[in-house]
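pasting for the record
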Amino acid sequence: MTIRKTIEDGVETFEAEIDGETIQWDRGLSYARHLQTQQLLTSQVPVSDKPDEMLFIIIHQTMELWIKLMLHEADIAMQQIRADQLGKAQKTLDRMATVLRHMIHSWEVLATLSPHDFLTFRGFLRKASGFQSHQYRELEFCLGLKRADLVMIHNDDDQKRLALEAALHAPSLYDELLRLLSRRGFDIPEGHLDRDFSQPYQADEMVEDAWLEIYTNVDKHWDLYSLAEKVTALEYYFQEWRFKHMKTVSRVIGHKPGTGGSSGVTYLVKALELQFFPELWAMRTRMNAPKQGGNYAEDAATNAGEAQPKGCPYD
């Protein structure tokens, strides 16, 4: 095989014919340098000699990578909403929902870990726990679930704690949505627009009324309605992710306490009650379908009479 060498833009470049294809590479940016594969593939460091620990590590590392992307996309979506670029925001939210669907299926891989498999190395984990994932907590804060007491878990890492505190005090995705509704003329309480964003969000009937107006008059408010459905899908899939997490943990360890001291499955069940966008869900109960169609009872009686054969003894 002949390798041809040239210089392009001051970089030594190579070219060769392989399987009928002209393949090129150079001494500049390579696949490995771009993706940092050396660093990535040496980041799996088991603390035991048990073979199933590798699966456990890789699944959680990939989850962290997807959460990193979720945070990246959420920041873009909020910028787009602030700029009233709702079409672009919908596309970004679609991507986030797709990432969540992928994360949901990831639990199925971890569920191949049997209770026996996990117990071979669980004791080596000591107090290490997914409860300590600062990215997951930051994502919750970003979407609107603010719980200041959870920041203290990261007091051993100043950089992570500062990032969490910044997310805690910043407006969430839902806060940006309410500001958008206010700009569009909806009556959103001032206390929901300019508040201490580090405090848990409190649902309000006026906010629910605004969403109800949008969902009742979808043609008039189509861009807000379609954006709201994208946001609702985000929580829908997030809750499905939480549910699959809970069921996977239940399948692998039953109702044992978590390694980080939580109640394990019981804690994960409680998390299913937590909401990011409460009025968007509560409003649905108040929606009513208009009465349409005829009097089905009279129609049924008429049709029964017409279907009765002539000469019937009941005439």
